[in-house]
């Protein structure tokens, strides 16, 4: 097992210096008839109404949206897709806070109006403000339904049905992929700020560990656990654990590069797992636990190789780095019970013995970069 050196920590800490508008262009998704100005209600991250404002409608080409969203987010929010039931990050999510549009950051729903509909999708009995959503008749697939859209950017959210609980009797059936959650007491960096969001797909042992750390890093907007790097489509956890799929346990990190650069994200990554042990992290052994960076672009590949050279030159680790760098082919979302695992099960044995010390070490070494 490799060991991180004390001089390596200091060198990496010194290197961890973070650098600190939505363009209104014709949209290519066929919704060009929408007005250029829309009226919405703005809410703080605590859920309090700030003001009602008239703002520019956000319109982008498919190519621009692809750069801002993960493949699943693009398919659902921009192509009117539907995620599989019981797989989204928020269908069984119970934290207090508000849900914003993943595309533009507009406030959409409060946690207090969320209920368990048994459908496998996040369900709410009303939006945070009626003016923040738009309803549209949908006659696709031989059915008559009412589609729910984000008022500001036309993102497809889901559908609304009349079988919900009181006081409204409605069920807003919403895709997790169209939402981003802001926990009560935390601060969001809404996508409406205009800074293109980026995603990083990283493997470094058990995804529970990586997720627990990255969720506390300033600039990170969402972390989901999943599988990548193999050839078996839609693998299950049991299949991946068997070591026969070629997939690694990974996390998909969505972050604001205006707050956290990809370089600095990788610098953190190389301190929270051991990149010198081949196909192993501590007691977890197998190719599914390999150290791996799956890149979304040539630029990410160049940056990853640069940071690996930097880490090696600074002798952050005693032994050679064996981290795989490969282009991302597809990211498969892990089962719902894996999401936010450390938060949901802090007293579980693996969480107490393995994850908690990693989180504690991270908080100490990067105290200035934690979410407030």
Spatial arrangement of strands, main beta sheet? 5-6-10-9-8-7
Continuous helix count: 9
Run of helices and strands: HEEHHEEEEEEEEEEHEHEHEEEHEEHH
Helix content: 10-25%
Low-confidence stretches: 13-33
Beta-strand residue fraction: 25-35%
Report the C-alpha radius of gyration, rounded.
21 Å
What is the makeup of the main sheet?
Answer: 6 strands, antiparallel
At CATH's second level, what is the architecture of the largest domain? Answer: 2-Layer Sandwich
- Looking at CATH, the homologous superfamily of the largest domain is Peptide methionine sulphoxide reductase MsrA
Q: Got a strand count?
A: 19
CA-CA gap between termini: 34 Å
**Shape type:** globular
* CATH fold title of the largest domain: Peptide Methionine Sulfoxide Reductase, Chain A
How many separate domains make up the residues?
2
Coarse structural class = alpha+beta
Which whole number gives the mean pLDDT? 86
Briefly, what is this?
With 372 residues, the chain is of the alpha+beta class. It has helices spanning 6-15, 62-68, 71-78, 207-214, 237-241, 262-269, 298-313, 341-344, 349-365, and strands at residues 37-43, 49-56, 97-101, 107-110, 114-115, 123-124, 133-138, 145-150, 156-161, 171-174, 179-183, 198-204, 220-228, 248-255, 280-281, 284-285, 291-295, 324-327, 332-333.
